[in-house]
Design goal:
Elements (H helix, E strand, L loop, with lengths): L1 H9 L14 E5 L2 E4 L2 E2 L8 E2 H12 L3 E7 L13 E6 L7 H17 L4 E5 L5 H13 L6 H12 L9 H15 L2 E3 L3 E10 L11 E6 L2 E5 L5 E6 L19 H24 L21 E5 L2 E6 L2 E4 L1 H5 L8 E12 L1 E7 L5 E8 L6 E5 L20 E6 L4 H4 E3 L4 H8 L18 E6 L18 E6 L4 E4 L51
Parallel strand pairs: 2-7, 3-4, 5-6, 5-7, 12-15
Antiparallel strand pairs: 1-2, 8-21, 9-16, 9-20, 10-11, 10-17, 12-16, 13-14, 14-15, 17-18, 19-20, 22-23, 23-24
Helix pairs in contact: 3-4, 4-5, 4-6
């Protein structure tokens, strides 16, 4: 029963199911292991039992493993792994501090160089999203991959059956940030920026627009809450034109459908009348709430901006002139929040909620990588990206962040890698049978992973010629595994070695499965916004 629960919890992640083990664990390379949280007591029934993880690592990698915990929400006694534990915590479904990624990679790098047998075992709670973010960054740091998208796709294929590895847009974005810093030899320095305006375009659906709220945090510290600040909020909405088809045919019978259209026409006229009264400083019974009908809750006239009458609603001011005269750009609809001048630096989280504080969407950006006009599409917004049927947000929905003039020189300092750093990168060969190689972004990518047993005495042997190799061919839209093995049930992604050892002291074999119709190819974070930084 416990095994069934573990399989259910791990979902589409690859598991180690051999030699008496059943662990949510997969080899990404010879020396990088991804796994779920090592748990105790009741949680150990449906997650990785701590004792089983300890036994596994002692059996196959005794004295040569270091565990990295990425969970901010839970810890364990480091003595359970002989004190060899690295702790780089950040919240689930969130991005880490950008500096933390580099610190993590340097830690893993130092550990690997102590002994060629050493491995890094990396986990968060589920062992997929946060774990994947850090592993993908490491794959670029050590030179195995140069391209962000390829690194993400490689990890997804080796960690999951459905090729859905890192799926949170903000986490993908941060892999892209780090990849760029590696490729461009950027020494990261947080840049101070001034946020002036946030625009949602087109308008979100199924929500009272007057109830849209948001907060801005630097790291975990909230620095701006729309409920507590006065600001101008401008809503631009299309003017609807209703044609009464009954007037074209006097003999046409009055149907329920036609009757509703007549009512819509009357409501439209009443709405415009209400707005006209509002602009004259009068209150109207129709001005109940700002919603799809284009009305706003009754409030005081607080003046004009650019000829537009402003209305006070809570702590914010709304301009509705566009609603009254249809004076929009084409079919443009948006809601704009004029923040003023908010100074920010580093890792920024912006979260939009409704009046009940239910999350609409959120996203992370880093100020050192943004442009003066940063556009984040729906696919780059956490939670909103799941709205595949566009019920809550239009397909072309996006967020626009307008910053004050940016100091490009302050953005980052470009440095040339020292001879020592160049030597360090050469420690990890660019082409071998346990790493993926790519000659260009669009070329096919071939990854060779043997099903031979892994042994802690040979887990860095890069000259294997085992006859039972499984070949992973990765194209831009599809990843597939092919091998002489045919049993897909116990497939594991364990890279190759040549030494033949008994199963008692060997890690799982790779048994290949063909994976088709990849629908989880990650978007390169450098293009996660409509404008590259």
């Amino acid at each position: 029963m416990s095994n069934l629960l573990r399989v259910a919890v791990s979902k589409q992640k690859r598991r180690y199911q051999k030699n008496g083990y059943d662990l949510d664990l997969a080899y990404i390379t010879d020396n990088i292991v991804a796994m779920g949280f090592p748990s105790e007591k009741v949680e150990g029934v449906f997650r990785n039992p701590m004792k089983d993880v300890q036994r596994f690592l002692d059996q196959y990698h005794k004295d040569h493993f270091k565990v990295y915990n990425l969970c901010s929400e839970r810890v364990y006694d480091h003595s359970k792994f002989y004190g060899r534990v690295g702790y780089y915590p950040f919240d689930d479904h969130n991005a880490p501090q950008f500096e933390m990624i580099d610190a993590f990679c340097r830690d893993v790098d130092a550990w690997m160089k102590e002994d060629s047998k050493n491995i890094a075992v990396i986990h968060c709670k589920a062992g997929k999203g946060r774990t994947g973010l850090m592993i993908c960054c490491w794959l670029m740091y050590c030179g195995m991959w140069k391209n962000t998208e390829d690194s993400l796709r490689f990890y997804a294929a080796l960690r999951t059956y459905n090729q859905k590895g890192v799926t949170i847009p903000s986490q993908i974005r941060y892999v892209g940030y780090f990849g760029r810093s590696i490729r461009e030899s950027i020494k990261y320095v947080p840049r101070n920026v001034t946020l002036k305006k946030i625009v949602l375009r087109p308008l979100p659906k199924e929500i009272n627009l007057s109830e849209v709220q948001f907060n801005i945090s630097v790291g975990k510290n909230c620095v701006f809450n729309s409920k507590e600040h006065n600001m101008n909020v401008v809503i631009s909405k299309k003017k609807k034109t209703v044609v009464d088809k009954n007037k074209k045919d006097p003999k046409k019978k009055l149907t329920k459908e036609n009757s509703e259209k007549n009512i819509d026409s009357q409501q439209q006229q009443q709405s415009q009348s209400s707005l006209s009264q509002s602009q004259q400083g009068q209150s109207s019974p129709n001005m109940q709430s700002l919603s799809a009908s284009g009305t706003i809750s009754s409030g005081s006239n607080v003046g004009t901006v650019n000829g537009n009458t402003l209305h006070q609603l809570g702590g914010s001011q709304f301009s509705l002139s566009d609603l009254a005269d249809g004076n929009t750009i084409g079919n443009d609809e948006y809601i704009s929040f004029e923040i003023g001048a908010l100074s920010l630096a580093g890792d920024i989280r912006i979260e939009f909620t409704n009046k009940q504080d239910d999350r609409m969407f959120m996203f992370w950006v880093n100020t050192s990588f943004v442009q003066q006009l940063e556009i984040i599409p729906k696919s780059g917004l956490d939670k909103a990206h799941k709205d595949k049927n566009h019920k809550a947000f239009p397909e072309d929905f996006h967020v626009e962040l307008t910053f004050d003039q940016l100091d490009q020189q302050q953005s980052h300092t470009t440095v040339v890698a020292s001879a020592e750093e160049q030597t360090n990168n050469q420690h990890y060969p660019q082409s071998s049978n346990n790493v993926a190689t790519s000659s260009s972004h669009h070329d096919n990518i071939t990854v060779v992973a043997s099903d031979a047993p892994q042994n802690n005495n040979n887990n860095n042997n890069l000259n294997s010629s085992n006859s039972n190799n499984a070949t992973t061919t990765t194209t831009k839209n599809n990843i597939s595994l092919a091998s002489s093995q045919s049993n897909p049930v116990q497939q594991e992604s364990n890279p190759s070695t040549t030494t033949q050892v008994s199963e008692e002291n060997s890690a799982p074999k790779v048994e290949a499965e063909k994976i088709e119709n990849s629908n989880a190819s990650a978007n390169d974070s450098e293009t996660s916004s409509n404008s590259s930084s």
